[in-house]
Amino acid sequence: MTYLLLAPTSSFPPRTQRDLDHISTYCPFLESDSTYAYPDGPENAGKLKEAFQSGHKSLGKAVFNTHLWPPPPPHNDNDDASGGAESWFPPPTTDTKYIYVHRPPRDAAASFYHHLTHMPPSEGGIDADVTKFVKEWVEGKVAYGMWGDHLDKWLGFARGNDNVLVVSYVDMRQDLFGVLLQVRDHLGLDLSEEAVKEKVMPRLTLEYMKSNVDKYEPKSVSWVEKGDGFQFVRTGGGAKGLFDQVREVSALPLFALCSLLFALCSLLFALCSLLFALCFR
Known about the structure:
Strand order of the largest sheet: 1-2
Shape: globular
Helix content: 40-55%
Largest sheet: 2 strands, parallel
């Protein structure tokens, strides 16, 4: 999405191509403390650091990435507004656009395992072997809660909501151009298919990102060097043998259940979207 916003437009006067110094300059991490300036005075609460303000100004849009659950539904004064994890997200506006990217549970768990085990515990990282991690992940004891609940909430939020685009990571790997066109249309960007293919796609390949990892590796946290060759942009393939190490048999049925839930939720969302489209034709 950020690269689409950086790409030249066909409008007049045309916007020239801009390069990316770091992805976070334009799309900072919404829930990270390091995103905010914390100035004195309650009237400035939540103020972004100058670098991110500048990035948003150059885009003409405020863009964030996040792992949070979707915004809570509207409530009245008699409702319990605590909302748990849902209440972390800022309230939406009528023109707020969301893009929810999901991936199969084994791949999601593998990615998060590599990520968290290479962060210091003082910054939210963990010191656990893969067996312990999988057990806690399927039980919802890892950051952001249970994968299935997260997916269910976002698919529910997206159902019948034109402001939400649901994107599959698998589809991105198999048909990046098609997904980019969906994102372009969702955001209402004035970009030709030729511009998307020639100006945007080449900078979104796994090979490009691995060779320019300094533009993508988060700066909101520090990284622990373990001598295992870890790189933030890895293989893009997910689990690949990682969970062969899992020895805790009791965790495996739960892990399989997550995979089944993913398939069922994806099917249910597709069916509901089809019924919604048929009802309002």
